[in-house]
Amino acid sequence: MKLGLIGYPLTHSLSDKLHNIVLSKLGYDVKYELIKINSSDDLPDFLREAKERYIGLNVTSPYKEKVMNFLNYINEEAKLIGAVNTIKFNKKRIDGYNTDAFGFDNLIILNKVETQDREALVIGGGGAARAAIYSLLKLGSCVSIVNRKIAKSLSVGSHFIRQDYKINVVTFDCSSLKEAVRKADILINATPVGMYPHIDESIISGDYLRDYTTVIDLVYNPFKTKLIKLASEKGCQTLNGVDMFVAQAAKSLNIWLEKNIPLKLVRETFDEL
Ligand code: NAP
User: Fold this and answer.
1) Residue 92 has pLDDT above 90, yes or no
2) Angle at the Cα of 219 (from 217 to 224), degrees rounded to 5?
3) DSSP readout, 226-262?
4) Does the CB atom of residue 244 touch ligand 1 within 6 A?
5) Is 64 annotated as catalytic?
6) Which ligand 1 atom sits closest to the C-alpha of 195?
7) 26 C-alpha vs ligand 1 centroid, how far in Å?
8) Does the beta carbon of 100 sit less than 6 angstroms from any atom of ligand 1?
9) Overall pTM > 0.90
10) Which atom of ligand 1 is nearest to 172's Cα?
C-alpha cells in the first residue's frame, strides 16, 4: 500500500521527499508518490481505483475544494474550512480531513505572531486561503480577503459569514489592494505567485508594505520568495510556509497511520533535505 499527493502542477512539491524519509525513519515500508492529475474530470475514476492501492492521499491545488464532491465523509473542521487536503481510504469509504489549518496554527504559534484584534489580509481564495482565514478568525483577527477572481473571494467570504464570522471582501484592483495592504497588520500570500519556478514574481509591490507588518508567504519553495525579500527590505517580520508545511505533513501522517507523529522528527527531516 502507498501514500501520495494529487494535484497539478507538482514541480514545486517537496512532499514526496519529506514523507519518504520520515516513513523510512519510522520503519514503514510505504512509498509516497507525486500523482499529477491534469483535469478534475479524472478525479472520480482515480479515487475509485486508488482505494485498492493507497492508504491515503494528500490533495493540493487545484483540487482541495473539488475533491469534497467525491468523499463519503468529511470531518467537521474540514467542512468549516471548506477544503480537504488529506484523504483516508477507510474500507469502502473515502474520508476527508484538513491538516492545513493545523499547519497554519502551528506557524502562528511557533513564531509568536500576535493575532488577537489584528487586521489580517489574506490574498488568494483557494484551499490555503480558506485554512488561513479559518485559523485567523478563530485566533481573533479581523480578516479581509482579496482574490483575483472576485466571485471566489465572495464565495469564501459568505462561507465564513454563514458561520457568524465577520470578513471583509476587498476588490483586486491597485488602489483597493494598496489601501488594504497598508491597513493590514498581518499579510498572507495564499497564492502560488513567487513559487518555483516563477521565483521573480511577487503578488504585491514592496511599495505597498509598512515596516510594522508581519508578512507570511505560504509558499515554501523557495524559502525566500520575492515577496519575503521585499518585505524584509521594508523591515517587516517575515515568515515562509515551512512551519505550516511541516505541521500539516505530520498531522496527515497521524491520520493515515493512526499514530502520533512527533513534529520534531518531521522538522528535523525537512531541515536535512
Ligand atoms: P489553489 O486552491 O489553486 O488557489 C490558488 C489561489 O491563488 C486562487 O485563488 C487563485 O486565484 C490565486 N492565484 C493563482 N495565480 C494567481 C496570480 N497569478 N495572481 C493572482 N492570484 C493568483 O491553491 P492553494 O492550495 O490555495 O495554494 C496556494 C499557495 O499556498 C500555493 O503556493 C501552495 O504551495 C501554498 N500552500 C502552502 C502550504 C504550506 O504548507 N506551506 C499549504 C497549502 C498551500 P483565482 O481564483 O483568481 O484563480
Assistant:
1) no
2) 75
3) HHHHHHHHTT-EEE-SHHHHHHHHHHHHHHHHTSPPP
4) yes
5) yes
6) 32
7) 31
8) yes
9) yes
10) 20
